[in-house]
Structures are given as C-alpha cells and as structure tokens.
Design brief:
By secondary structure, the protein is α+β, with helices and mostly antiparallel strands. It contains 22 helices and 22 strands. Its main location: membrane.
Amino acid sequence: MSSEAKIATNQVVQTKAMESRMKGKMKEHGELMAAILSGLLIFGGWLLNKAEINTASITLYIMAFCIGGFAKAKEGLEATIKEKELNVELLMFIAAVGSAIIGYWTEGAILIFIFALSGALETYTMNRSNKEISSLMELQPEEAFLVSNGEQRKVDVSELEIGNVIFVKPGERVPADGVVVKGGSAIDESAITGESMPIQKNISDEVFAGTVNITGSMSIQVTKLSVDTIFQKIINLVQTAQSEKSPSQLFIERFEGTYVKVVLSVVALMMILPHFLFSWSWQETFYRAMVLLVVSSPCALVASIMPATLSAISNGARNGILFKGGVHLENLGSLKAIAFDKTGTITRGTPEVTDFIVVEEENEREIKQMAASIECHSNHPLAKAIVRHVVKGNVDLVEIEGITDVLGFGIEAIIQGDIWKIGKAEFVNLEKDSEIFGAPLVDMTEKGKTMVYIQKNEKVIALVALKDILRSDAKKALQDLNSLDLATVMITGDNEKTARAIAKDIKLSDYISDCLPENKVEKVKELKKKYKVVAMVGDGVNDAPALATASIGIAMGEGTDVALETADVVLMKNELLKIPQAIQLSKKMNRIIKQNICFSILVIMVLISSNFLQVLDLPLGVIGHEGSTILVILNGLRLLKN
C-alpha cells in the first residue's frame, strides 16, 4: 500500500473513531442537553408572553414540550405498555398537557422541564456508574507466559488450564491464581488484601491474579481458571451489588402506580359525575377536572426534593465532598455504623520509619549513612522508607559496590572489609542478641510495627521499626463520628496484631482483621443485618466490592479509579473529617425535605378540597400550586449556605 493510501486509510479510521465518540457523547448527554434546551425555550416563551407576542410564545412552549418531554413521555408510554402499569412519567406529561389545554402553557412547560432535568441527571449517573467494571478489567493481565517443555510462549489468560505452569518476571502482574513451584519474590498484594507491606512468597506459597511481582522471577502452577480467580470474583461482586435495588427505590416504584391510578381515576370521574350529581354544566365540569389535574400533579412534591438535594450536593462539592446522587446523600443521614479499610484510608498507605534504635557504643550517624547507602540499591518499600528517613535527616549517601540481595530475607554488603546485613531477624541471627533491645522491642511489636535489623560483622547494632502511619485527621474524625453515636469498625486484610493496635490508638468500636475481598463483603453484609444502614470507606481495588455492597460507599479521592467509580461519595481532598460534615449536611437536608413534603402535600389537599367545593378558580389554583413550588424551592436553597 502506498504512503498516500495509508494516510487516507488512517484519516478514515480517525474520522470514524471521532464519529463514534461523538455518538457516544450524544447518547450519554443527550437527555441532559434536551432538558437544558427546553429550559431555554421556556425562558424565551416567558419573555415573549410578557411582550404579548402570544403566537410566538406558544410556539416556543410547544417546542419546549416536544424537546424536553419526548424522552420521559416515551419512557412512560413504553413502560406502561410493557409492564401494563401506569407511572409518574405518564402522569406528569398528561398534567402538563392538561395545563396547556386550559391555557396555562408556562406551568405545563415548567412541569415538563423539572421532570426532564431530574430524569437526565439519573440517566447520566447510571452511565457513569457502569465504568468501574472496565477500570477493574484493566488491572487484570490479559496474557501470560506459559512454560511448556522448557520453553515459554505467550498465551491468552483465558487459555490457561489448571495445572499449567506460568512464568512471571519482576514488575509484572500475576496473571492467574496459583502456587509458587520455582523461585520466589516479594509480592504487592494491596490490590487484593489492602496490605501495604509486600509479602514474601516462596515455593508452595499461594499467589493471586492481579497482584504485582516486585523483586524476583517465579514459576507458578495455575490452581484456578481465569473465571474463578479472586480478582474475577471482585468484578462479579461489584456487578451483583450494583444491580440490587434499595428498599426505598422499591417503595417508590410501588407508590408510583398507585398514585397515578388514583389521580387519573378521580380526574376521569370528575369529568363526568359532577354534571349529573351536582347539575354542573359540561363546561364547568371539564374546567374543574382540568384544574384538579393541574393542582394534583406532583410538581411541588418533585420540587420538595430536587432543589434541596442539588443545593446540598453543591454545598458538599464546594467543601471537597462529591455525592454521586441524592439518594446517597439522603441515606447518609440514617447511618448507624461506618466501616473503614485501613491502608490508604485510616493510614497513609506507605510505610514510614517510626524508630531507629542504635546500641549505645555505636556511631548512629555512620550506621544510618551505611544503612541508607545499602538500601538505596533495593526497590523494596521498606528499603525506600529507610532511605527517605535518613536523607530527610541531612545524611549524605556513599557509593557502595558488592551488594547482594538475599531474596526474601534482606540485603548484604561488604564495606571496607566489614560485612553489613540488613533484613529480618532470622537473616541477622537475632537469637544471639535477643535481649539487646529489651522492652522497646516488645512494645513496638505489640503496636504492630514491622522490624528491620542491621548487623555489622555478626553483631546486631541497630533496629529500625516501620509502620503505616495514621492520617493526621484520623483521630479527630473518629472522635466526631463517635459523638454522632455511630458504630465505627475497621475491616482490613492486615494481621490481628496490627489491626488491634490501630483500633486502640484511634478508639474504634471494633475491628476485623485478615480479610480478603469476599470476606469484607460478608462482614459488610453482617453489619447491615445488625445496623441496617452501614457506610464503607476505602480506597483500593480490594475495597470495591465492599463499597458496592454497603448502603453507602465512601472513597478517598486519591484512591484507585475503580474505588472512585464504585463509591457513592468521594472525599476529594482525602480528609476523613469531611465524613462527619457530610453526615451533618445529610441530616439537615432530610429535615428540609420533610418540611417541604409536608407543606406541599398540605397545599395540594387544600387546593383539591377547594376545587371540589367550587371556591377555587384557576388563577388562584395556579397561584397556590406554583406558589407552593416556589416556597419549597427557596427552602431547599438554604442548603447552599455553609
């Protein structure tokens, strides 16, 4: 193919890709754009009506009806035909048309606009919520190196069978669940367990798909098919949890049909019976039926919730709290318990040096210098933490040659004839010097810290304690949550000792340790049975199923994409103190919504009663109906204030 032909082909491909993206955007945002355009047409019609250009005004209103109401009218009609059940969408459209029939185009058009806007926001949120599955899939390797007859060949993960042996290089993600049959390495399992510290894996140890091989190469025997891996279970759990409808949603769906049937039945009777029962004229009968249809439409009820919800969401966004929908904001005020992941949520997610203890007769500065100079040759997170700690103390590093990395134990170096070792207790034969650090060692162990020992010429001369440090606002946030009478529980993949130490430090109500993702989901379900409404706070891929299962999922803003997509609430600035603020905002919003609903229902009852008694004319009905709508909107807008 000539270069000109290739260029032409590329242009065609790019054009088609752009068209596909544009169609996708239109499909995702089309309903919202139609609602906004409908609102602009209503404003234009109102201005023309004020200028007494009636024909043009009505034309714009009709366009607003068609553009704004098309999606909801179609949805309502299709749902009615499919489910053989009337719905609010159909009632709202009929009420708007009824309003236009008796000459009140503005009211009918505004009714269409309010409902179209709320429907567009719901559709947009649903489209956004489907993206976390693709985010999960990106973390799961698609290919693996299959070892057969001493040779390696690249195959699709779906082709792997139980018993196959695969080869994983340093820096690669493990493509399948299995056991190590050759080699060994430190594995970052944070995507599965949430544990920030890498876990050393040797022969016969189990490894999971989606985890990262850090240091050495390994041969792994596959024990599960790709569809049965723990990582795939995470994806399935997210899908299952998101497909479940909340009790509130089910109640609203049942209420819709009943409300619509009652209103339309009464309006139908109102168009006939008063003529025979009360000797009303047919004109009066039809007039009263249309007034009833207008004043009984749930415009004020819709306005009771949406403006208040949007105001609260805007308030939260200004303060670093992103709510993905009004239902999540509403449910937050009913919380009885809140569960936390540890790593990256309560803690910062990276190990830091908390103690650097040197035996009395040794030179502390020299030991720190040598330790950091040796550890800078390692990619292990603990080694990086030691280097950061030493460099922060203005200690210069020196060039060292002859470094030996002893897989799974530590690192060794020979410097000017001295043999230095840095690593685990068994690597430095700590038994010979077991009493050297005494009580401090016991205390640090009880606090769940990780120990690294430094040895020089067969003598242990220093101890480095590391820990995943608490976030600066964790204690205050937990204190505020406890003051709201909430049960606070930490669910973590960490060991029991570390979990207990943290729970004691920040005064958690309870903690659950050693949890894999499916265990976290079960624990959240148990908490929901006990407390009914439970929130889960997390930041990692491993937290996604629990976030989706909880009544409200709360993600840290710097967390993984899948956690952010799955969660219902996102703390954009990673501040735990925003959680109690969000709960208080939710409680205030719920109070205002209840006020609005009670007021709007009372007004509708008064208007309907007055219409039956023939003391309510259409202008007063419009004033009462629209006036109540304006009042509840203004009440809801109070939530814009901090």
